[in-house]
Design brief:
Length: 341
């Protein structure tokens, strides 16, 4: 029997992980601990809300007293930390919340986890810690060269996990996922943002020349990768969870419009993101050696994702109101005014 605390489990990838784990491991108990920030959404957990082995607790990972109470109340022995501020553009506008959650929050979880005597601690991280890769594939021992406040905050969280492993002998593992897509992703990230905008015949603001490359991973494969590393990863090690599927942003944007049957003229080339990384690409060989396999091919995954947004307007229409519209205006209004077709 394991009692697993999943922090940030109401977000995009965390909720996919909870949905996967709760049904795959009825012998484990799961507590989702989430602050429910703008990106957290209890609707993402509706499919498991009535399951016997699932509980939800609202709280901040940087709130020491609250973390301690939950660890004790549920006799937690394992932590999987998805909680993060996760959007690069927001980190450029204001890094503050990123330091709070992605740096201080990880430290508090590690520190309270150690004092409570937990077993495994899995820190969910990102390929962005490696920074811009001109060519080839990032390997786990490559150096960190994060370029955005988001990437730097994630690198800091990882380094603290490493220090707790080396110094205090804590059992930590790290996953570094590549750009993830799928259902329930907050519509500020490229694929859900462009899909929902295109459904409404609105312009798609592509940064710079649209020739940046990302490596895309389907969310359920990401969730299964974290499961694999949690169960089979070696203590103190990091594992790349790479989609091994590199695409130009422009190519993805064109494909979204094709699948939706919308005109390519919705594309607008807008002024670039500051410090924009050109390319991410990782090798997944080390995670594969643990037995992790990709099960979704990009074409099928993208179509399934777009169909999900088409069929689940109830989920995203209520998000794209209020504060979301303020953020949209701040991020895109001026850019779109100086846009090129
Ligand atoms: P998300 O923004 O959808 O969800 C983040 C979740 O964390 C939300 O539910 C939010 O309410 C919660 N949260 C934020 N601050 C918190 C706090 N202080 N205390 C408790 N909960 C808090 O993010 P996501 O896309 O699901 O990413 C999950 C993790 O995976 C993050 O650590 C991210 O860095 C990492 N990651 C994401 C991607 C990607 O493409 N989305 C790729 C690789 C790694
Ligand atoms: P994003 O989904 O924000 O993920 P990340 O920055 O973590 O890679 O962006 C993916 C790519 O799409 C990235 O190169 C930036 C680009 N992009 C745009 O061109 N326009 C947009 O409006 C957004 C949100 C992203």
């Amino acid at each position: 029997m394991k009692n697993i605390l999943v922090t940030g489990g109401a977000g995009f990838i965390g909720s996919a992980f909870v949905r996967h784990m709760v049904t795959t491991y009825p012998e484990y108990n799961f507590v989702c601990y989430d602050k429910l920030t703008y990106a957290g959404n209890i609707d993402n957990l509706l499919p498991v809300s009535d399951e016997e082995n699932y509980r939800f607790e609202r709280g901040d990972v940087a709130d020491r007293a609250s973390v301690r109470r939950v660890l004790q109340q549920y006799a937690i022995d394992t932590i999987v930390n998805f909680a993060a501020e996760s959007h690069v553009d927001r980190s450029i506008l204001d890094p503050d919340a990123f330091i709070h959650t992605d740096v201080v929050g990880v430290y508090i979880l590690l520190d309270e986890g150690r004092k409570h005597g937990i077993g495994r601690f899995c820190q969910v991280s990102t390929d962005e810690v490696y920074g811009d890769i001109d060519e080839g594939l990032s390997l786990e021992d490559d150096r960190f060269l994060p370029n955005s406040p988001y990437a730097a905050s994630k690198a800091s969280g990882e380094l603290m996990a490493r220090a707790y492993c080396v110094t205090y002998g804590m059992d930590t593992v790290i996953t570094r996922g590549s750009n993830t897509y799928g259902p329930y992703q907050y519509p500020e990230k490229l694929i859900p943002f462009f899909t929902t905008e295109a459904i409404d015949d609105r312009p798609l603001p592509l940064y710079g020349d649209g020739r940046q490359i990302r490596d895309w991973l389907y969310v359920d494969d990401h969730a299964r990768g974290v499961d694999r590393v949690l169960h089979a990863g070696e203590s103190g090690e990091a594992y790349n969870l790479a989609g091994e599927n590199q695409r130009y942003n422009l190519e993805i944007t064109r494909r979204i419009l094709e699948i939706l049957g919308k005109p390519q003229s919705l594309i607008r080339f807008v002024p670039d993101r500051e410090g924009h990384d050109r390319r991410y690409a990782m090798s997944a060989a080390k995670a594969r050696a643990l037995g992790w396999r990709l099960t979704f091919d990009f074409e099928a995954g993208l179509e399934a994702t777009i169909n999900w947004y088409r069929e689940n307007e109830w989920w995203w229409r209520k998000i794209k109101t209020g504060d979301y519209l303020d953020y949209y205006k701040h991020q895109y209004a001026e850019r779109l005014e100086s846009a090129q077709r």
